[in-house]
């Protein structure tokens, strides 16, 4: 355990138990960074009423047990000093020797203080999930990159991650989509779908469905043969889907996400389970017929006039909907994949549906208590006008067009730098994708944010390019020193406050990664990395590394701090899926 905040939490809890009894051992010490010391613990304020003692008196007793002044305690066991301040705050300052020692341990650890999950879990992450009948738009950006960041973090912790791309690839619209494919020819349809013109394709099919009775009837008949999985219809369905998936993969490659065809688990995968889902729920009395539809009524969900809200798993016409497929999905993931945790990275607008899904699945016993199912709610992407991000004509912005523009603008930011065309294109891609992804991941996933290229691509402030530039600047130090970062091993000396602050900062990396996984909160890792880059900037400005007047021991220590900071930044950015160019 190297995170100072976690170490102090454990030590203060031990002092609480020693001072006031084991009943107080699990109290939250309320340790936070402080401007008056390294950390401040406010636990005495929260415990004073319970102990019926003045906060300052409580704080003093805790301090005495931490510092060794209380009988039977050892002051040398505490990694610093503690003082009582104000009405009962504990100001804690860590010793430079302890910080240096812990930093050396982090440097020797190839995982930079990130512990492996014990025991490892099987985690399903359901993300991206575009509709096969439509092209990907900016609304798919957040579900794709937030889900991918969470997948990367869990894998880094040693969990078994099962990515699930729950494509909308089945249902009644496919009748008209397949018939339109026949009308325009397979080659034309494939070319249009591979180019990402899914919306135009869909709109053309829909227009014929609404205006041409003969086409309408053919489409309805085709739905029947699709549901029966008639071989020729399935061949046509595969042509449509394969072309669509090739387009999706083009977007995924440009974004640099880890989704592959192996992750595809679309609605079609569960088609054969739907009737059984309904039959089992009805036979067990969990689902009942209401107004001709088969519904589950999970407790606690009410609509108008406090009437129970139905979770409809079979429509009155016998058709199935999202609820049916989602119930089958949970059953499969728990029973067949043996998951410990399921993360649904889906829009916040689906909150009610997801809550009713989890409640219904628990009623059925398909989602046991030991399995965590969570809705990672995704907020909307807004334009500069504060409304949903759209083109000037009011249409959704194509995701591929948005990514292309990001690369073009990034290349413009790099204009004038001494790079050949290939290097400029490579760096422009990394900076453009990094800017878009980091801007999204740096805000809480359930919050809305304004899409603003100028802000995203800025080389200053809390942006992807700023963090990429920080790593490039550290690499330039090692190029000038003519050495590899891995060869800089210290030992660590903390003679300047900026050195101390940087060492203290990097010690928190492991616990931040744990926190991201536990709370599905990539923005916390982004905030930590930005703070790390900012602290490094202060170090860089105040602590010369390669100047001739720097003595060898100080130089070795500062190079080691640079190398460790580089490793933490690069690892953290990789966990977010943000590419790191060698130069900028």
Describe the structure using short key phrases.
alpha/beta; four-stranded antiparallel beta sheet; Gyrase A, domain 2; Rossmann fold; globular; 584 residues; four-stranded parallel beta sheet; Isoleucyl-tRNA Synthetase, Domain 1
CATH secondary-structure class of the largest domain:
Mainly Alpha
Shape field: globular
What is the number of helices?
A: 21
Residue share in helix: 40-55%
Looking at CATH, which topology of the largest domain would you report? Answer: Isoleucyl-tRNA Synthetase, Domain 1
The number of distinct β-strands equals 13
Largest sheet: 4 strands, antiparallel
Averaging pLDDT over every residue, what do you get? 93
Radius of gyration, in angstroms, nearest whole number: 29 Å
**Fraction of residues in β-strands:** 5-15%
* Oligomerization status of the protein chains: single chain
- Spatial strand order of the main sheet: 1-2-4-3
CATH superfamily of the largest domain: Isoleucyl-tRNA Synthetase, Domain 1
- Total separate domains: 4
- How far is the first residue's CA from the last residue's CA? 35 Å
Using the 3D structure, state the CATH architecture of the largest domain: Orthogonal Bundle
Low-confidence stretches: none
């Amino acid at each position: 355990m190297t995170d100072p905040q976690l170490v102090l939490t454990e030590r203060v809890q031990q002092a609480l138990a020693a001072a006031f009894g084991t009943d107080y051992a699990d109290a939250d010490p309320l340790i936070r960074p402080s401007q008056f010391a390294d950390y401040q613990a406010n636990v005495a304020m929260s415990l004073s009423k319970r102990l019926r003692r003045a906060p300052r008196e409580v704080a003093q007793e805790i301090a005495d047990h931490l510092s060794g002044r209380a009988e039977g305690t050892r002051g040398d066991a505490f990694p610093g000093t503690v003082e009582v301040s104000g009405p009962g705050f504990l100001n804690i300052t860590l010793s430079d020797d302890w910080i240096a020692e812990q930093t050396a341990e982090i440097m020797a650890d190839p995982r930079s203080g990130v512990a492996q999950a014990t025991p490892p879990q099987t985690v399903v992450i359901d993300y991206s999930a575009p509709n096969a009948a439509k092209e990907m738009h900016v609304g798919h950006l957040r579900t794709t990159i937030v889900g991918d960041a969470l997948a990367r973090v869990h894998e880094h912790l040693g969990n078994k991650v099962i990515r699930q791309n729950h494509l909308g690839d089945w249902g009644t619209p496919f009748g008209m989509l397949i018939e339109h494919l026949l009308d325009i020819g397979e080659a034309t349809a494939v070319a249009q779908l591979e180019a990402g013109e899914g919306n135009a394709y869909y709109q053309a099919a829909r227009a014929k469905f609404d205006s041409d009775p003969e086409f309408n009837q053919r489409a309805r008949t085709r739905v029947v043969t699709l549901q029966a999985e008639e071989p020729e219809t399935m061949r046509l369905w595969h042509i449509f889907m394969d072309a669509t998936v090739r387009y999706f993969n083009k977007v995924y490659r440009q974004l640099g996400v880890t989704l592959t065809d192996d992750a595809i688990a679309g609605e079609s995968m569960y088609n054969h389970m739907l009737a059984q889902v309904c039959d089992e729920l009805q036979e067990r009395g969990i689902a009942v017929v209401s107004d001709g539809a088969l519904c589950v009524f999970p407790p606690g969900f009410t609509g108008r006039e406090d009437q129970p809200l139905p979770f409809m798993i079979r429509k009155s016409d016998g058709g199935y909907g999202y609820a049916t497929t989602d119930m089958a999905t949970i059953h499969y993931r728990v029973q067949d994949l043996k998951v410990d945790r399921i993360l649904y990275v889906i829009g916040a607008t689906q909150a009610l549906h997801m809550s009713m899904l989890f409640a219904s699945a628990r009623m059925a016993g398909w989602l046991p208590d030991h399995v965590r199912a969570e809705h990672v709610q995704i907020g909307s992407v807004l334009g500069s006008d504060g409304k949903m991000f759209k083109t000037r004509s009011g249409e959704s912005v194509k995701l591929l067009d948005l990514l292309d523009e990001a690369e073009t603008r990034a290349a413009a930011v790099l204009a004038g730098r001494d790079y050949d065309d290939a290097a400029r294109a490579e760096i422009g891609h990394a900076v453009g994708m990094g800017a878009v992804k980091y801007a999204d991941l740096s805000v809480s996933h359930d919050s809305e944010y304004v899409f603003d290229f100028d802000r995203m691509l800025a080389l200053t402030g809390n942006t992807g390019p700023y963090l990429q530039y920080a790593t490039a600047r550290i690499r330039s130090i090692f190029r000038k020193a003519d050495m590899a970062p891995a060869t800089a091993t210290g030992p660590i000396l903390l003679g300047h406050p900026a050195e101390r602050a940087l060492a203290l900062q990097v010690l928190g990396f492991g616990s931040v990664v744990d926190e991201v996984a536990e709370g599905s909160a990539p923005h916390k890792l982004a905030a930590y990395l930005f703070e790390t880059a900012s602290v490094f900037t202060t170090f860089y400005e105040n602590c010369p590394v390669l100047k001739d007047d720097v003595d060898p021991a100080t130089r070795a220590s500062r190079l080691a701090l640079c190398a460790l900071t580089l490793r933490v930044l690069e690892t953290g950015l990789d966990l977010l899926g943000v590419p790191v160019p060698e130069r900028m």
